[in-house]
Amino acid sequence: MSGSLEHAVHAPDARPPGALEGVRVIDLSRVLAGPLCTQMLADQGADVIKIEPPGGDETRTLGPPINADGDAAYFTAVNRGKRAVALDLSLAGGRDVLLRLLEDADILVENFIPGTMAKWGLDYEADLKPRFPQLIYCAISGFGQDGPLGGLPGYDAILQAMCGLMSVNGDAASGPTRIGIPIVDHLTGYTAQSGILLALYHRARSGRGQRVDATLFDTALSLLVPHAANWMHTQRTPGLLGSAHPNIAPYDRFACQDGAIFLGIVNDRQFRKFCDYIGLSSLQQDERFSTNRLRLQHRDVLRVAIEEALITRTRDAVCQDLMRLGVPVGPVNSVPEALELAHARHRGMRIDRDGYHGIGTATRLSDAPMRLGRLPPAYAQHTDEVLREAGLDDTHIATLREQGVLPRWPPSTP
């Protein structure tokens, strides 16, 4: 797959450069957290070189659905804007090529099991830092390098279970339930990006690169707001509340005549407006519902009254009317309904160009807008191009290919 995506009607050279224009990233990561991090860097103008092993990034095969080039849609979701190189780092020749690429790189991102890079003679402290003192090295892992769980592999759902997220997601009927998106992987990608940007800022002042450590374990625990604080202050173990909130009421999903809505009332003023609109003014006179603290204590009775008032009304009318009144509410949309919202298109959060379909970037800068450049690359698509830029001639590249240092796709089977 090749080509470019146009983010606006302006010609590419008419747009201002991205915030990370001129920054080069070597991306050794696979699956989700690392590739999402580097895709966000690419969206802001960084030159991201994705280096894949002989078997490729696993997400290329995690389908259907599959695109015209045979790659799973999953892969295309987190790998746009990158150039692809195939390199066997288990071979000395592959490691030599990587070191050559690092000579003009600013950032390296990897998510191998801790110890893998050291096994290859590519440990940050011992090998890379002395040779590339300005390099920012970002390691993404399940649990970090050390400690009781250090070095163990980690996956999103396992961390959701271990770190208490499943224990507060679900209801009595479902029991503890995995959150329906890989939220730990996603946030770890954002955490890694934040660490990299902090390290870039620090390097601008100090001239020195550093190691950025992002783990799924830390990220998962950081998501326990307000549940962890509630437990620390009361010693009461948080439990399953379905869609409800442990600290706010009414803050929950409710059924209307033709579908569900989510009502998010966070103060007494909003509660009064809601009661007036829905025909429940009597609740305002009931001492049990006069404050959020009291509403929490009587949430079950309150829920019954609200459900009875909403069940005769249509979803869209309730949402439109209440939002105009300043009462936070929204329809419980399906994925297609969410992506087909006119506002999703207005905000550039849905991308459909040149056969590519993706989600837009959530970070916007007024003077350095995102640049949607290359389509998600085919396996090894840019290997020769990148290696020539690094000073290797065609004879050298051909020799590396003969030696198996530059693998081909699909991988050969024994």
From TrEMBL:
<dbReference type="InterPro" id="IPR050483">
    <property type="entry name" value="CoA-transferase_III_domain"/>
</dbReference>
<dbReference type="InterPro" id="IPR023606">
    <property type="entry name" value="CoA-Trfase_III_dom_1_sf"/>
</dbReference>
<dbReference type="InterPro" id="IPR044855">
    <property type="entry name" value="CoA-Trfase_III_dom3_sf"/>
</dbReference>
<dbReference type="Pfam" id="PF02515">
    <property type="entry name" value="CoA_transf_3"/>
</dbReference>
<protein>
    <submittedName>
        <fullName>Acetyl-CoA:oxalate CoA-transferase</fullName>
        <ecNumber>2.8.3.19</ecNumber>
    </submittedName>
</protein>
<dbReference type="InterPro" id="IPR003673">
    <property type="entry name" value="CoA-Trfase_fam_III"/>
</dbReference>
<dbReference type="GO" id="GO:0008410">
    <property type="term" value="F:CoA-transferase activity"/>
</dbReference>
<keyword id="KW-0808">Transferase</keyword>
